[in-house]
User: Fold these one by one.
Assistant:
Number 1:
Amino acid sequence: MSGSSGTHYYHYDGLGSVAALTDVNGTFVEYYEYNVFGEPAIWDVNTMEIVESSVVGNPYMFTGREYDSETGLYYYRARYYSPKLGRFLQTDPIRYRAGLNLYSYCGNNPIMWIDAFGLMHYGYEETQQIINEGRTSPYNPLRHSDYSDTGWDFSYGPHEKDTYEPRPGMKMSSSSFGNYMAGYMGTYHAGDLGYFGARAVGNSLENARASGKWWHGYNIFWGDDEDSIRDINRGNEDAEAQKYKDYAETGKAIADIVKSESERLGNALKDRIKGKEKCKK
């Protein structure tokens, strides 16, 4: 950060919050502490006292967002956030897709998650609901990020800045999750053919994008970046595991039906035999 007070360098904690500022000599200028929901305490190193606002004009604090010391609010792009209240001041732009509470910050779990855009993080259970929709609805894995058949579109529109958790503790951007869904749904609905189809389209799109020439998209055999391949493969792995689980549950259900029907027929046969014996007597 450069300004009238000179050049200063940011130091961050695990949430991306600014923990300290140093000058060009590496000397600490300010320290920052936060409560759970991000209310800041700004320490002036020269006086070792808490001040109301940054003495060097630094606006970036909790999770790296801009803080207005006069109003006590953070600017999270889509809306304003009050660390004193622990909630946003405006409703969620994506409405009830994020849950019934339109004002909550990170599902009231700011220790584990951040919300850099004031939008939404879908936790593990919520992400599983989205994936389940894909398993039970028409889905074109060749379109990677587009899940428009059920109203989802991971790379554009209102979900562009959301994050997802397909595995416990695994946080994905909307773009990464779109690739994950392509690998998952391609494998789940069409097996190896669907998986290779997702990979082929990924190669095509990346080749066309990288070169700026649409005809390079005809190369479907290689070209996708490592991160996209990783996310597609993760979706493929989870889909395979789910398919085996479904097969096992289906097999158990069929076995239970066969067992139940066998018992029913056996009991009916016993009753019929008993009835004949009574007639003979």
Note: Helices lie at 124-136, 174-211, 226-280.
Number 2:
Amino acid sequence: MSHTLGIIRYRSISQKHPRWSRIQVFGNARTNLQAQPVNEPTEGTAMRSFIPKARDGFQASAPVRSARGQELRPRDGGSVRPDRRPTRLRDNPWVRAVARWLSEMGVRPNHVSVFSTVVSAASAACLVLVPTSAPLTRTLLYVSAAAGIPVRGLCNLCDGLMAVEGGLRTRLGPLYNDFPDRISDTLLLAAAGYSLQLPWGRELGWAAALLATMTAYVRTLGGCAGAPQPYCGPMDKTGRMALLAFACVAASIESGLGLPERAMTAALWCMVIGCGVTIIRRLSRIVANLRTG
């Protein structure tokens, strides 16, 4: 051969489950994109081998497969990974422990995605009841709404870990992964507007909900057009939920001290402006990638 093949060393991550493995490439290895059949593990095997760890501490992810169930590998000898939102919380040990525990209990990623919507609906109900409640009750409602937001975020992390690293992906997984998030965003942000005792509070909440949905639409549109999905902010999903949780806590303090409740109003205005900036940034990245791609 005219070129020198590098040395490809195969290291098995688990002797019990050879499906979890990775390939290390040294030198100028040139390998063609090819489909390598891999036996699909049983349901119990997928749960027992959830998120194995290599010797160097990196977490292995389940291989990406074609429609015929064959594993696809790129030219550089690495692995094909789905387009995912970059976040450091996914590597948090306790988050991975929760995902592993849910998998071992027989819970599936789609169940977790639906449950995140249920939690968001409960938080939204608390916010809607704020204007008609007594001051002490309003404080408790704000705290309850704030408590549900990180639970929703934990569900969003666990369903992805269980599906990708845990090998529990299904054909309907992308729908369950994205559509419940749009429902949750709409419920929470619209309810935040209903919690305001202002004549235009509801309109402000619905504007934030609409623009939040538009940020996700633009991201998905870029992926459909052939560009990498942009997850940039400043008002991505994580930023929106963090801001809303902070606003709920601040509003509970304002209500408890008898102060004018301005935190939620300020948060929704920041969200409206931030979502507009996010849409523009994502569109510009999509256009740049399509022109250079």
Note: The longest strand covers residues 7-12.
Number 3:
Amino acid sequence: MVFSSKRKLVIPKFFLGVQKLDSISCYKYLGLELDNKLNFKECKSCRIKKARKGLVLLSEALRAGLSTKSGESIWNNMIRPIIEFGAEIWGGKEWKEAEKVQVLTGKRLLGVYKCAASDFVRELGWFTMRAHCELKKVSYWCRIIRKSDDTLVKRLYKIRRLESVDRPGSWCWSLKSILESSNLLQTWNTETVGIGPGWMSAVKAYMMKRECTLWRQRMEQKPKLDLYRGIKVTLSREQYIDFGPRWRWRTLAMLRSGSSDLRIETGRWEGLSRMQICRFCLSGELNLLNISFLSVPDL
């Protein structure tokens, strides 16, 4: 296989003795599907296909009575690692297919409609898939920094840092952008990383602040989440999700997500105003739902 970023690649002929060697465009090595352009499209496609198969089994288990907490455990420990496999190498870019899989999983765990806003799955306190992949990339970089200077991977890293740190699309450029967006550019410049899980927890906290800011900005652009913005303040897991079987709190989740059978939602399908006249008494406006009712702190 010949690696090149050229659109029209002229592949030379290779021989082993008198036998001509076949040229291929994709090869699986150490569990990763490598293509001749190194864009990892085939690798990501295979990860999504495998994750969707696991999602089908998870959905069947939920219909059979599996608890939401157990479903989350299956997602975090069995399905999501399939998607993130190899993210240390190719992570750091927007990946819409992976985000769709996580959003679909979150909606099924919460029991809300498919038409619910995608940002409502943050009710579970989840990062985006991009943030998860970026965190794995930063963790891998920390392991490289801690290695001895005479190891092959450390020597290769130092060479590539000098050559490609300012080249868009390169591994070092992507890593620098991740740290800069998380206010950790000084760490990139000095290469001073801590030891143990405590340092990675600090990195995760920085990313949490960034994720929360981006999440709030996305919700501002969705009128369907007008009510939810007043209820959900922090990017954390809500306590009511653990309150017994799903059927007990599913209605509350649907009301909070803005996707319910109430007139305040169905009227939006007809293009009606959020402030409507009550169709039963015709005496006053149908205002937004009482926020205090939907933001019960203690169940």
Note: The chain is about 55% helix and 5% strand.
Number 4:
Amino acid sequence: MPKGFFALHPFTAALYFLFAVVIPFAFLTPAAIVPGAVMSCVLLFSQYGFAKTKSGMFFSLGFLAVIFIANIAFSQNGQTVLFWIGYRPITLENLVFSLLTALMFFSVITWFALFSRVFDSDRLLFLLTPLSKTLALLVSMTLLRIPLLYERQKTIGQMRSFFVTPVKGNRAKRLFVRLKRLLGVFTALLVWTMEESVETADSMAARGFGVGKRSSYRRWRITARDMGCIAVILGLGAAFILWESLAGTFSIFPKLTVGTFTPAGAAFTLCYLCLLSLPLIEH
């Protein structure tokens, strides 16, 4: 159940997530990426605790390491050579680019993990139904199906484990048998899901889905608190985007250029940090 800032109107929370996700994609700079990566973890832990989110966090950290290593392995861009691995140069620019790219994807994954916990199906339907009823239904059912299919796959695998026997033979034979068993699990999962989808479609038709204007079980109204948060999000986000677009001096290729520290740059970076910290400040 969302609490604090995330319990506000769905549009307010959606606008916050929009700025939090788009800015790291638009500007590959430490000022845009590092605060987002840190604050996404802080907010996820503050909302749901470390115990409930540690498995997803470990996956995100592993994904970060894979992206970092892959970028270093397959890219040789940059002019400042730090050392050589065989005939492959390792440049400062490539290291910085790989680290920022990995942090960007880590930040986006964490933001979407928080988004999926904050926006339940009712909030998504309320937010997206004015745009498209079909899109709202598709998004909400997709977010529901992902954890549901994962749990069902575990259930099917546990049931099948009572009937399988250890495989003897060489490595190729064991791999073939394992793939065959996984195919059986996938087939059972697909049949289960298709049968339930028919029942869901019949239930929706019986309840009059698509016949008239949809009514929402819960109604949210824009309050003065929402208006204040929306104004702060738009003001701080626009200020940081304009500064990065017009006065940003950080560049990676062909040679790393950091630029000089200025009070204006620090102030606009602080604006972005305040934007990301709004759920903590407002709460």
Note: The first helix runs from residue 10 to 26.
